[in-house]
Amino acid sequence: MATTAWTHERLEQLRQTRVWRSIFRRGPARTNRTRSLAVFGNLALHVMPVKVREKSLSVRATYYLGSISFFLFVVLTITGILLMFYYHPAVPDAYRDMKDLIYVVSNGVFLRNLHRLAAQAMVVAVFWHMFHVFYRGGYKPPHEFNWVIGVGLLLVTLFLSYTGYLLPWDQLAFWAITVGTNIISYVPVLGRPIRFLLLGGHIIGQNALLRFYVLHCVVLPLGAVVLIAMHFWRIQKDGGLTVRDDHE
Amino acid sequence: MSEMKSYEVGLSSDALREPQRIVFITRKMSAKVKGDVGPQLMSFPHVILREAIAFQLLTIVLVVLSLFWDAPLEQLANPLLTPNPAKAPWYFLGLQELLHYFPPVLAGVLIPTLVILALVVIPYFDVNIEGEPLWAHRSRPRLQIYSGVFAVLFVFLALYDAWTVLVPTALVGALGLIPYFHPTSNSRLQKFLGSRPLPWWVMTWFIAVALTLTAVGTFFRGPGWSWVWPWR
User: Fold this and answer.
1) Which has the closest alpha carbon to A128: A102, A167, A154?
2) Four-way CATH pick for A63-237: 1.20.1280.290, 3.30.710.10, 1.20.810.10, 2.40.30.10
């Protein structure tokens, strides 16, 4: 008990320092006013509502599927950045880097497993989130546009997963992308030009690998961040999560 | 007693010309009433804390799984050596299964585009916003449309031998008929099915077909996209 009191005292002293107050600009979040300020005054948190309905916090209301999708995106960003330190988007260095991850890099196998697993889980989570929102009627006014943003996020998730699929440059990757990009060429008129643009040529080679790498590591994640921010922000602007009356 | 003033009733939407108006609120156009929002909690700390716990649980599960499961890595990519069958990532295998039955423009371009469009326009369809059960009103003509749609679907799917689409379609279609023939049943499942609106049935049909196609494409397709049993 004595140590807890001591810790509290030190923490209180820290809060009184000029540096701490310059960062947080508020007292401890003990009153509703300072708790509101904790959300308002934080760049990351201010997309959230200050208050939420108690009902919308129950596990059965959401299964936290939206949050889980976002958490998986965070895990994928962190593991993805670490993987980028060991990866060259070149033929056949990309494949050698995979072997290095398995046999040379400390915890390289674990890093790759985590990224791959989280990627699969994110596709599942995003689909499940969408179906759950549908069955709960979460798309109904005034949430229409947020549903559309959500469909956009589903597509970004699928493309992120798909572009990442080529990067190991093994047989699995090569032929999966071959099957997928062949479908594009069936689009009337525009099919072949789109495929050429995506692959940077007629075959899946060095150019395709580089383009998929840039899409996977820069373009699509940036798009995802923008859409995720809009998606969260709109929940608040549209009046919070849908709460069903017939529930519970 | 003063005499009653005489009124003329007419339709007008110009507030400047007709400043005094009567508003009739019908059931379908009723003003949106903000119901009781119920008790509220501060996001900080209630939401933040729960999200943090959810994140920790998720991380633990991911880490444990990653320790025991290995990401696949095959031989170096070789454009000259085509595996049989060459499979797309699992979430596109439903599409690949469709490509097996239908012409590429239909299965590879038209159907995915229509699915995405359908998803986007879902919230802009104002029909049946109240969630009225499928067989609640005019059940006779609805049954005719229902059977008509399914008959066309069956013929279309049978023409292309698309059995893996036809089977889940038939199952969901039959499920939808149960509440029509047994409108007053006491079993919990039948009560649940009987209260489902049309959008619920359409989405359930879509999910049933998508899950079946993905599962078949992932586990039951072998060389030349022929049917194989995964346990043999």
Assistant:
1) A154
2) 1.20.810.10
Question: Is the per-residue pLDDT at B9 higher than 70?
Answer: no
> What ipTM was predicted for this assembly?
0.90
Q: Does residue A147 sit at the B interface (CB-CB below 8 Å)? A: yes
As averages over each run of 10 residues, the pLDDT of chain A (248 residues) reads 85 89 83 88 85 87 94 97 96 95 95 97 97 91 93 97 96 94 89 93 94 97 97 90 61
How far is the C-alpha of B229 from the C-alpha of B80, rounded, in Å?
Answer: 28
Residues of A in Cβ contact (< 8 Å) with B191: none
* Structural domain containing residue B215: 93-225
B192 within domain boundaries: yes
B positions 173-212 inside 8 Å of A (CB)? 199-200, 203, 207
Q: Per DSSP, what are the bridge partners of residue B133?
A: B197
Q: Which residues of B touch A176 (CB under 8 A)?
A: 86-89
What total number of domains does chain B contain?
1
CA-nearest of A47, A40, A53, A15 to A240 is A53
CB environment A9-27: b (16+ within 10 A), e (fewer): eeeeeeeeeeeeeeebeee
Collect all residues with Cβ–Cβ distance below 8 Å to B221 and sequence separation of at least 6. Answer: B85, B87, B93, B97, B227, B228
